[in-house]
C-alpha cells in the first residue's frame, strides 16, 4: 500500500518561536517531523510515499532526496495552490493515486505511533469509503479548540469540522482513503470549500465516512512550540521497556532517558553505546581487581544506567535491528562476567578466604541464567517473558541485570566485594528455581491453548 | 478436522512371527502401532478420531480407552463384517462422518511421518473429491508387489489397484476424503467389490480422485516382521537433530540412538534423563576437583552422549514439551559450569599456577555463549540457527557443547585439565566473534527480506 503525505502548508505558528526553517523539517529529538512520519510508515510496512509539497517545497526535497536514506521511495508532487486549503494538496495527488484500491493519508506535521498507523492499515474501506483515524479520549487532547471534531453515529461520521458543538472524537490526521475522496474534494470545491474536512463531509453525507478508533495509541499534531514539547515528552515517556527490572524501572531509566534525549542529537549509534557499556564494565573489573572498590562499584552502576541507552536511542531514532539486539546481549554477558571476575580477583587478592573463588564461580555460573531462560521462553512461546509478572517479591531478589549491578555497586561502596559475590552466588540460582516453576505453568498453559 | 482410522483387519502375517496380540497393538520402540498413528495425528493437530474396530476389537478398545491418555478423543465403531474388505470398515463410519466437510482417513498399521499427515491436511478436496497420499519414490518401496499402485494423469488418478502393470506411484494409506467416498464405496459394493481401492476407483472414473504427493516424507505399511524392522530403523534414523555439532553427529549419536531404542521400552522420561545427565556432570566435577582426572574426563564424555537421549526419547515417544527443552538447556548450562569449576579446582589444587583461575573463569564465561547466541538468533528470525552451516573449519573449533565435552574428556585422559581449560578459555570466544560476523550477515539478509 502507498501513503499520501501532505507537507505543503506554511506552519507559521511554529516559525514564530525562533525556528526559521520549514515546518516539516522542524527537528524533534534528532529527527525532523517529516522523517518521523516517514520512518513510522516504514516500520508499519509502507515503503512507497507520495509527498505533496508546496510552501518552500524545494527545501524539503533537498533534505529528503529520493527517500532511500530512510528506506522509503518518495514521489514528489508540487501543489502551487497550497495556500487555498489542504484539500487542494490531496487533490494534487489524484493522477498518481487514482489507480490504487486504497491508500493511507497523513500529514507531515502529525507525529503518530506505529500502532495507530497499523490500526488504520488493518481496516479495509470498500470502494467509495474512507476511514478517519479518530481519538475518543478527549481529555488528553491538548488544544481541543484547534482540533477537528467528529460527530459519530453507528460508526459513521455524521459531521466533521473545527466548529462542531456536539462531538465524541477528534480527527487525528490519519486516514485510510480510497480514490473516491478525490471526487468528494472536487464536489466540495465547487461549493467553494477546499479543506480536507470539507471533502470528508461530502462523503459523510453519503454515509461513506467511517471511523477507526485509534484507542490507546498516541498521536500529536505539532502546530505550536507547546505541541513540540508535548511530543518530546510523549516520545521519551514511551522509551522504557516493559521488560525492565525494579532498579531499571525506578532509577536507571530516569537518568538514561534524559541522556538519550541529548544523545539523539548526535550521530552516536546504539551499537556504539553497547560497546561503550562493555568498556565501562571492563574498567569496573580492572578497578575491582586493583582494589579501587568504591570507584569500581560506581562505574558498574554507571554502566547499568548506560545499558538502557542503546535500546532507547534505537527506538527514538528508528535504528532497531536484530543484530543490534544480539550484539547488546552478548556484550552485556561479557560485561557482567568481567565485573564478577574483577570482584573475585579483588576480594581474593585483598585477603579474602580462598573460598571466595567458589563464590565468584557460582556468581559467574548464575549470571547468564536470567537472560537465557527468558530467551528460551521466547523461542518456545513466541512471546517475550516479562519479569514484572513474577511479582514484587521475586523482583526484590534483584537477580536481573539491573539488580545484579546494583548489588555490585553497593558492595563496592562498602568496600566488601565478597559480600556482593556472596549475594550474587545465590540469588541467580534461586531465580532459576522460581522461574522453572513459573515457566512450567506458563508453558503448559501455552501448549494447552495451542491444542484448542 | 476429524480422522477416520481403520483398525479392523486381522493382520495375520504379523501374528505368524511369534506375536500373538492384535496387529494395531504391535509394539514398536515403546509404543503400539495404533498409538503411533494417533499421536502423529495429534501432533498434526487432529484431536478427534473415529476408530473402526473389528477383529478382536475389544482388545484395542480396552487398551486405548477414550484416548484421553494420548490427548485425543476416540469414538469407536464396530464393523462386524470387517472380513469382507476394508471398504466395509470405511462405510461403517458413514453415519458419524456424513456431516463433515472432509476428514482424514488412515490405517492403524501405517506408520506415517507427521509431515506427510500435514501435507494431506493442507490439500483441500472439493465436494465429491478425494485426495490420495501418493509416494512417487518407487525405489524406496520395500515390497512393491504388495503395494497398491496408482496410475496418474494430470494430477488425477486414472487407475488404482495391486495388480496394475503401468503406474507411477504407490498409495500410502493416507487420504483426505469427503463423504462422497461413502457413496462410491456403496456403488462398488453393488458391483461386488468391497475394498477401499474399489471405492476410490469409482471416484477415479469420475475424475474425482486426486493425488497428493508426499514427497520426501516417509511412511511404512507394517505388514510383516520385516516391515517392523524397517520402521524401527527409519524411526531411529530420524532421531538425530540437524543442530548437532561434529562430535555429536559422528560419535555421540551412534551410541545414544541405540541407548534410546532400549530406553523407549521403559517408563523413563526425557526430563529424568536430563536430570541424570546433570548428575553425571556434577560427578565429573567432583572427580576433577579430587584429582581423578581420567575418570572425570570419561564421565564427562558419557554425560555428553547421554545429553542426546532426552531429546531422542521425547521425539520417539511423542513426549516433546517446551518445558522439557527449557529444563534440558538450564541443566546443560549447570552441568557445563560445574565441570569447568571442577577442572579449575583440580588443576589449581594439583599445583598449577594460580593463573589457571583466570583460564577457568574465561572458560566459564564462554561456556553459555554458543547457546545464548543461537537462542537470540532464533527469537530474532523465528528460525533455528544451524551450526552445521558455519562450515567445517568453524565446527572443528569444537566450541559447541559436544565439542567442549570432548576437550574435557581428552584433557582428563592426558591428566592435564589445565590444557583443556586453556582451550576452553579461548575457543568459545573465537566462536562468538565468528558468529557475530556470520549472524550479522544473516540478520541483515533476514530483515531485508522482511522489507519486500
UniProtKB/TrEMBL annotation, chains A, B:
EC id:
2.7.7.74, 2.7.8.34
Q: Which family does it belong to?
A: Belongs to the CDP-alcohol phosphatidyltransferase class-I family. In the N-terminal section; belongs to the MobA family.
User: Which Pfam families would you find in this protein's record?
Assistant: CDP-OH_P_transf, NTP_transf_3
**Source organism (scientific name):** Calderihabitans maritimus
- Reaction it catalyzes: 1D-myo-inositol 3-phosphate + CTP + H(+) = CDP-1L-myo-inositol + diphosphate; CDP-1L-myo-inositol + 1D-myo-inositol 3-phosphate = bis(1L-myo-inositol) 3,1'-phosphate 1-phosphate + CMP + H(+)
Question: Looking at its record, which EC class is this enzyme?
Answer: transferase
Residue ranges of coiled coil: none
This protein's GO cellular component annotations are: membrane
Per the database record, which ranges form the MobA-like NTP transferase domain? 3-130
> What are this entry's molecular-function GO terms?
nucleotidyltransferase activity; phosphotransferase activity, for other substituted phosphate groups
Single Gene Ontology BP term? phospholipid biosynthetic process
The protein's UniProt keywords, in alphabetical order, are: Membrane, Nucleotidyltransferase, Transferase, Transmembrane, Transmembrane helix
Annotated TM spans: 275-295, 347-366, 405-434
PANTHER family named among the record's database cross-references:
N-ACETYLMURAMATE ALPHA-1-PHOSPHATE URIDYLYLTRANSFERASE, NUCLEOTIDYL TRANSFERASE
Protein's name according to its UniProt entry: Bifunctional IPC transferase and DIPP synthase
Amino acid at each position: 500500500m502507498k501513503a499520501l503525505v501532505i507537507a505543503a502548508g506554511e506552519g507559521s505558528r511554529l516559525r514564530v518561536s525562533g525556528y526559521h526553517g520549514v515546518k516539516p523539517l522542524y527537528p524533534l529529538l534528532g529527527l525532523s517531523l517529516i522523517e518521523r512520519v516517514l520512518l513510522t510508515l516504514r516500520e508499519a510496512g509502507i515503503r512507497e510515499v507520495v509527498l505533496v509539497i508546496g510552501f518552500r517545497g524545494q527545501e524539503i526535497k533537498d533534505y529528503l532526496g529520493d527517500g532511500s536514506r530512510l528506506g522509503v521511495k518518495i514521489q514528489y508532487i508540487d501543489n502551487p495552490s497550497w495556500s487555498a486549503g489542504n484539500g487542494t494538496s490531496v487533490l494534487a495527488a489524484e493522477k498518481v493515486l487514482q489507480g490504487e484500491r486504497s491508500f493511507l493519508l497523513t500529514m507531515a506535521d502529525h507525529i503518530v505511533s506505529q500502532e495507530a498507523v497499523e490500526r488504520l492499515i488493518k481496516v479495509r474501506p470498500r470502494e467509495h469509503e474512507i476511514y478517519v483515524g479518530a481519538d475518543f479520549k478527549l481529555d488528553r487532547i491538548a488544544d481541543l479548540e484547534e482540533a477537528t471534531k467528529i460527530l459519530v453515529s453507528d460508526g459513521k461520521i455524521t459531521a466533521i469540522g473545527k466548529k462542531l458543538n456536539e462531538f465524541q472524537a477528534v480527527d487525528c490526521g490519519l486516514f485510510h482513503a480510497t480514490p473516491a475522496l478525490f471526487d468528494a474534494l472536487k464536489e466540495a470545491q465547487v461549493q467553494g470549500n477546499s479543506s480536507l474536512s470539507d471533502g470528508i463531509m461530502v462523503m459523510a453525507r453519503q454515509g461513506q465516512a467511517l471511523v477507526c478508533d485509534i484507542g490507546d495509541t498516541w498521536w500529536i499534531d505539532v502546530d505550536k512550540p507547546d505541541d513540540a514539547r508535548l511530543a518530546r515528552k510523549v516520545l521519551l515517556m514511551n522509551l522504557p521497556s516493559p521488560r525492565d527490572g525494579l532498579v531499571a524501572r525506578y532509577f536507571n531509566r530516569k537518568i538514561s532517558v534524559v541522556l538519550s534525549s541529548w544523545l539523539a542529537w548526535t550521530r552516536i549509534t546504539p551499537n556504539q553505546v553497547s560497546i561503550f557499556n562493555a568498556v565501562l564494565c571492563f574498567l569496573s573489573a580492572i578497578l575491582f581487581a586493583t582494589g579501587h572498590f568504591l570507584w569500581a562499584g560506581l562505574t558498574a552502576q554507571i554502566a547499568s544506567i548506560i545499558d538502557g541507552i542503546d535500546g532507547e536511542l534505537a527506538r527514538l531514532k528508528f535504528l532497531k535491528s536484530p543484530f543490534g539486539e544480539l550484539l547488546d546481549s552478548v556484550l552485556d554477558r561479557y560485561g557482567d562476567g568481567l565485573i564478577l571476575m574483577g570482584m573475585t580477583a579483588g576480594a581474593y587478592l585483598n585477603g579474602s578466604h580462598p573460598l571466595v573463588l567458589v563464590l565468584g564461580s557460582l556468581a559467574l555460573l548464575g549470571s547468564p541464567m536470567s537472560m537465557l531462560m527468558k530467551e528460551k521462553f521466547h523461542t518456545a512461546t513466541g512471546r517475550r517473558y516479562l519479569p514484572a509478572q513474577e511479582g514484587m517479591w521475586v523482583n526484590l531478589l534483584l537477580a536481573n541485570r539491573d539488580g545484579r549491578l546494583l548489588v555490585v555497586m553497593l558492595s563496592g561502596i562498602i568496600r566488601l566485594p565478597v559480600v556482593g559475590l556472596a549475594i550474587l552466588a545465590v540469588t541467580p540460582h534461586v531465580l532459576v528455581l522460581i522461574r522453572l516453576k513459573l515457566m512450567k505453568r506458563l508453558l503448559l498453559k501455552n501448549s494447552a491453548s495451542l491444542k484448542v
